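The authors assume throughout that readers already know how a fold can be written as discrete tokens. The format is easy to grasp once an entry is in front of the reader. For illustration, here is how one protein appears when written out as sequence plus structure tokens:
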Amino acid sequence: MSDTLNAPGRMTIGSGPDSLTLLINQDAYLGNAQYVVRVDGVQIDQVLTASALRSSGEVDVVTVRGDWKGGSHTVAVEFLNDAWDGSPETDRNLFLVGASHGGRDVDGATASLMRPEAATFSFADPLRILPLGDSNTHGWDNSKDEATWEGYRKPLWDTAASQGLSIDFVGPRSNGSASLPDHDHFGVSGITATEVAGLAHDLAQQTQPDVVLLMLGSNDALREGDAAQTVPGELLSIMRSIVSVTPHAEILFASLPAVNAELLPFRADANEIREAINAQLPGVAAQARAEGIDARFVPVGYGLDDLTDGAHLTEAAHARLAQAWFDNLIVG
């Protein structure tokens, strides 16, 4: 069979926002090699046929697409139609030349398949985390330049890195110090649960999160007398919108920090409203799970001594929140 008939090819299999690239070639004796690709045990599309000849030094480029949650994933490339156990000139063989993910080569993704068998390797997909909330997610700190605000995101990143968990913060906003490698988030100072409920669908489409860290309702409590009646339903609405776009997303939502109404030009009963919202959050989690949403309430105890002013967390309180997030990430 001539090199003209066996020109190297490019193909895309599967669908989804994530991708893995395989480099494949063959010894084509009495026909081309055929194979299948599986990710985490699931076959991606149909039986594939190699084109590129090893003898020519060319490769087929196969882009495998999917929607893989962050973590480790196993890939199998299974050769199907060996001719017989002969030499390269008198046999049909398949070669996995390499693989890449996220622009980086994958270790261990090479194999010579001389008989019907599978080559396997693993790759790690960073956990895409959307920090979603108000000024405490933003990292409000009047002692620092706003460009360096990071709140719980810095200690969460450090804890994940120390435990070997690869994460990728996502979101259209960016703040953080030089020591925080990833500044992405959607923490907006002053934003309410009511406002985010109207943004959640588009935000999920834009960010495609594996995990959402949700802490919202403080600004509602500060401004709205009926927030204890509206915020729980709005949080549930936010969750529904997110999973309508990313059904696999895990949503962790934390209790609201204390507020010191004496130091703020808002409602005098804001802390009581905040407490009434918090009391309903376990029920919100139960309702979400009943609807098939992977949701978990993360209770974090706060007092007035956890605040730098009337509403914003100290570094120590941010570190405690980060640990609570991480503990629930690894359980999930």
